Amino acid sequence: MITYKEGDIVVYSSEGLCEIDELTEKKFDGKVIGYYVLRSLYNKNSVTYVPMNNEKSLSKMRHILNREEIMSLIAEMPEEVMPWIKNDRDRQKAFKEILIYGDSKDLVRLTRTLYMHREEQMAKGKKLHLSDERVFKEAENLIYEEISYVMDIPRDQVLNFITDKMLH
Fold first, then answer.
1. What CATH number matches the domain at 67-167, 3.40.50.800, 1.20.58.1290, 3.30.365.10, 3.40.1740.10?
2. What is the residue-averaged pLDDT of the chain?
3. pLDDT of residue 39
């Protein structure tokens, strides 16, 4: 089981980067439950309580990548795309699972899939479905946020950083 401590920076579901502000206990129905208190790095008013005894909630949380892992992720960026799910409801469900539980490679693969589909749609004079566009932006934001923080570069420079590293 992965353990976390106060001060750790983590990715929590679609909340993005958070700092573990404190470890605390709350009493509910006579039971004392331990919680990780997460504070968003980019929205200081956003606080999330993650119960330490809830596997489903904990599975949404992971340590951020380190510099070497970021460079490795960029070098090995998945070239393949996920198969396109034609049914809107099934596709959104699959995408939501990746946004909530996926690791960095899953997010990159999802972003690439949506990017490629958007390009195909544009070639036909069409647009990406609004819900797919929303997922694309959310996945892209999660990836950019983590790379920006770990590599200590401005968020608006992340795409150039990735492109530069992929070409060299």
1. 1.20.58.1290
2. 92
3. 96
